[in-house]
Structure to design on (576 residues):
């Protein structure tokens, strides 16, 4: 029997292991949604804004490691996917987006809702093509899926509604998706050069990124052989931090611990599977070697003495036999001690502010860390939530952390939590949301109820766009345009059918979190937090401190003395 393009799409996706599509319906998508309805194998996870569909699909793909799919109708429908697709692509999440399109005969006529998705999504995809006629479709879909899973990132299939309803020519094969991962390691000569560099070095530090996924055992063996402290990025944290006696924390704006010092005080720094973006936190004096499976990334973030193409696990496995074990662990011990001191300071700070009103967000995050299950999935909003997540949530084997770590978009946490909970219905999924971030895609609270997803939201309600407020202050600018007039978010959550809890008293934080985590269905904890809390990076520069002082002075002259006093009172302990 003849099969339509839409039916072939669904059948091929089922063959590739896809069991759900995130999206929002529309006329041009009708053949596809109808084929999904009739398939009974694929769930349609309908969201309230297509951006959330892309974020959710990306979270699903990141957690499962498998292809995930989202869809939007023609024109504005698929245009709304774009921010989530940028995020997915930069996080290397294998996502296929179906961008339904206007009738094929109308393309180029300025038709109702006409956009050019085949051009729009180019920058945020490995592959983005228009299906002009049904003969093309099977191989085009195959190519799109292969790009998404093998290059890891986004593929977009632009599908006019009329073409989706046409028959696929008989005899076209369905191949499925081939996601075999190759072994990739540097050539022998390059490995020998790395071994020579490391064997000749006194103090070595490792810095690990998301490329260390699944390579913790090898990284620890390398650290042991070299007596090297191990720092990591936020995307490396979930793979590297737990059960790691060499761990010295993170660097960068979110950072804490001794990673910054370890990276600056070593003779050789080895960057493993990391594309850590902040040049200002990278040292210039040690010799630097970098290993990345994507060689086009070598050397783009720091000066580099040796750049090697390889998968982290495969490379270390091949490298270890070439390394002479080091015996001097003075540098490692010193950095670990420094890290332990920083950890104790962080804890003492939390204990100190834990009773203060307004509630300090660090206390909330640290208490959540204690109460959350060992295999929880945390999503953190861009903004201060990312800082609290980086510093106060501990990695444990099985815990996962999702954020908009490369694209840096607000409002990522809730839709990512949706994708996480759909993929793992029985796992604890916790969204650390900012009040700005939550409000931006607030309609997705309805999605939680619609699909009965028991996501737990911890809302850091500081009535301000806090991260930007801080950025203004360290730049010497009085903050402007950051204040938010917020509702009672717990009441709002109740109104849309979630369990809502609100807490303003620090003594109630622990019981409120316990109640939140014990809730059967979706629930939101609205924590009214201190808007003046600052988060200092592990090395605040003189310029930042000066900028902050300048902003405070300007605010004082502008008669905003109360604000200045509150800020100083909230933070005097954190000033370097
Ligand atoms: C879509 C988008 N718009 C604007 C920004 C700039 N930005 C980064 S963080 C931030 C503030 C976030 O505020 P909120 O969600 O309330 O969290 P807080 O920092 O207060 O914890 C803003 C405006 C961004 N990153 N993404």
């Amino acid at each position: 029997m003849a099969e339509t393009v839409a039916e072939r799409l669904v059948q091929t996706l089922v063959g590739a292991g896809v069991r759900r599509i995130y999206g929002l319906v529309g006329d041009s998508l009708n053949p596809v949604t109808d084929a999904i309805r009739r398939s009974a194998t694929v769930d349609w996870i309908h969201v309230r804004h297509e951006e959330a569909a892309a974020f959710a699909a990306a979270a699903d793909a990141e957690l499962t490691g498998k292809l995930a799919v989202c869809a939007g109708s023609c024109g504005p429908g698929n245009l709304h996917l774009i921010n989530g697709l940028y995020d997915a692509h930069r996080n290397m999440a294998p996502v296929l987006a179906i961008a339904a399109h206007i009738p094929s005969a109308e393309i180029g006529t300025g038709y109702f809702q006409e956009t050019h998705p085949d051009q729009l999504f180019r920058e945020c995809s490995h592959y983005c093509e228009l299906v002009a006629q049904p003969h093309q479709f099977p191989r085009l879909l195959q190519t799109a899926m292969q790009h998404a899973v093998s290059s890891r990132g986004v593929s977009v299939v632009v599908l006019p509604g009329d073409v989706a309803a046409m028959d696929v020519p008989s005899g076209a094969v369905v191949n499925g998706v081939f996601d075999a991962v190759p072994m990739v390691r540097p050539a022998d000569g390059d490995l020998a050069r790395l071994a020579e560099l490391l064997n000749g070095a006194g103090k070595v530090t490792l810095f690990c990124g998301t490329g260390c996924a699944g390579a913790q055992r090898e990284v620890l063996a390398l650290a042991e052989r070299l007596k090297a402290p191990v720092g990591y990025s936020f995307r490396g944290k979930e793979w590297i931090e737990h059960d790691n006696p060499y761990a010295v924390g993170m660097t960068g704006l979110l950072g804490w611990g001794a990673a910054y010092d370890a990276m600056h005080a070593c003779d050789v720094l080895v960057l493993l599977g990391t594309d850590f973006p902040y040049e200002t936190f990278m040292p210039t004096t040690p010799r630097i070697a970098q290993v990345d499976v994507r060689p086009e990334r070598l050397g783009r973030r720091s000066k580099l003495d040796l750049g090697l193409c390889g998968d982290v696990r495969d490379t270390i496995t091949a490298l270890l036999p070439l390394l002479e074990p080091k015996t001097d662990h003075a540098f490692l011990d010193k950095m670990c001690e420094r890290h332990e001191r920083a950890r104790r300071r962080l804890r003492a700070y939390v204990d100190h502010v834990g009773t203060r009103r307004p509630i300090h967000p660090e206390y909330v995050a640290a208490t959540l860390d204690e109460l959350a299950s060992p295999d929880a999935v945390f999503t953190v909003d861009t903004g201060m939530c990312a800082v609290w997540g980086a510093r106060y949530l501990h990695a444990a084997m099985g815990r996962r952390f999702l954020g908009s770590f490369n694209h840096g978009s607000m409002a990522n946490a809730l839709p990512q939590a949706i994708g996480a909970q759909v993929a793992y219905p029985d796992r604890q999924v916790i969204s650390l949301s900012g009040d700005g971030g939550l409000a931006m895609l607030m309609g997705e609270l309805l999605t939680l109820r619609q699909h009965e997803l028991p996501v737990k939201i911890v809302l850091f309600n500081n009535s301000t766009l806090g991260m930007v407020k801080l950025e203004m202050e360290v730049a010497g600018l009085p903050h402007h345009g950051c204040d938010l007039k917020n509702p009672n978010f717990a009441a709002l959550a109740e109104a849309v059918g979630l369990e809502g809890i609100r807490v303003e008293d620090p003594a109630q934080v622990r019981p409120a979190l316990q109640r939140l985590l014990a809730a059967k269905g979706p629930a939101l904890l609205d924590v009214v937090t201190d808007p003046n809390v600052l988060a200092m990076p592990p090395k605040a520069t003189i310029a930042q401190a000066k900028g902050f002082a300048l902003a405070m002075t300007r605010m004082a002259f502008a008669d905003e003395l109360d604000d200045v006093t509150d800020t100083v009172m909230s933070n005097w302990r954190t000033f370097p």
